[in-house]
Amino acid sequence: MILKVLGCDGAYPQANGACSGYLLEQGEQRVILDCGTGVLERLLRAAPPQRWGALVLSHLHGDHMSDALVLRHVLQAQKAQGLLPAEHKMDLYLPASPAREHALLADEEYFSVHILTDGQQAQIGCLQFTFLRMNHPLEAYGMRIEHEGRILAYTGDTNVCDNLLPLAQGAHLLVADSGVLHKNWSAAAPHLSSLKCGELARDADVGQLLLTHGGPGCSPQARLQEAQAIFPCTAVAEAGMALQV
């Protein structure tokens, strides 16, 4: 599996940046993981719409789903140009709540809609997904993705919770929400700190940790130093990078 980082900014995109969005590739399979502000343009450059296999949204905060609202217009245009069959529907996996955001996204003219639940498993092409509920103000899910013994774990947005260790256990690559430095972290925060991400990677015996979702004013170097003090095999996500799982 290859994971391409389309965007990794938290809350809102920095100048020339984009919020959360990833393209997971395995052979001819392409799965989009989150589609926040600024991601769609980068997605179009990374892969043509005819090769998009599914869109999976961890939760329905705007920095993880706002560009999904206009993605349907790409599908509409592709059908009008004869590049996609008129009956084509893209698989869309997303939480049921909040109801307003769900209703905006779950357009059954363009999507085959699948509702996420805690512990749910789904076969998306050649990839096996397991969804686990995370600890965030909105209904949110982490993803454990497996193919031929290789494991990618993506926390989405979360703080500490019981499902984190099972999500990450033995993953070859853990992509973790490091929205704050530890001095600004508390048990009531909506995000993990970089230090907490390092502890999770160590305790779950993962191969590599990728810190993502850096919040405004939280420098990449400070986040990296904080996590590497606990787990040396750590990198900070940057748009455009590609990692072998």
Automatic annotation (TrEMBL):
Extent of the signal sequence: none
GO molecular function list: 3'-tRNA processing endoribonuclease activity
Protein name: MBL fold metallo-hydrolase
Metallo-beta-lactamase domain segment(s): 18-213
Gene3D superfamilies membership: Ribonuclease Z/Hydroxyacylglutathione hydrolase-like
Superkingdom of this protein's organism: Bacteria
Cited InterPro entries: Metallo-B-lactamas (IPR001279), RibonucZ/Hydroxyglut_hydro (IPR036866)
